[in-house]
Amino acid sequence: MILHELGTNANKYGALSGPSGSLSVSWRREDVDGQSQVQLDWIETGGPLVTPPSHSGFGAELIERANAYELRRKAILDYRAEGLHCILRFQWEAPPSGTSKG
User: Fold this and answer.
1) According to the model, what pLDDT value does residue 101 have?
2) In a domain, 67, yes or no
């Protein structure tokens, strides 16, 4: 749901709404305080000028609440002039031992 909301907004209002915009999505696994977690970075550039919203709309609330409830971490929505940077963090859960990879 979170990635769908980010993609929809990027297409309607953000970097993907015009021909010069671009989107970069990357993730990495890291250890923080002895726990493995994943950090996903959603970075939009080249779209319309971005300003922080005056109030939290449905999409931002969905992202923040879903990340907090489902993933038990805080979502960071950074409205930079050059584009939205969203950081999602969640706990890394290794597959059970003996699980086939495909």
Assistant:
1) 61
2) yes
The answer to the question of residue 98 being in a domain is no
Say if 102 falls within a structural domain. no
| Residue 13: both structure tokens together | 């209002």
* pLDDT, tens digit (0-9, with 9 covering 90-100), for 19-53: 999 999 999 999 888 888 999 999 999 999 988 87
Q: Is 46 left (phi over 0), alpha (psi -120 to 50) or beta?
A: left
How many CB atoms are located within 10 Å of the residue 83 CB? Answer: 23
Domain assignment present for residue 26? The answer is yes
Q: What is the extent of the structural domain holding 13?
A: 2-91
Residues with Cβ within 8 Å of residue 40, at least 6 apart in sequence: 25, 26, 27, 87, 88, 89, 90
Q: From edge to edge, which strands make up the β-sheet containing 22-32? A: 22-32, 35-45, 83-91, 76-80
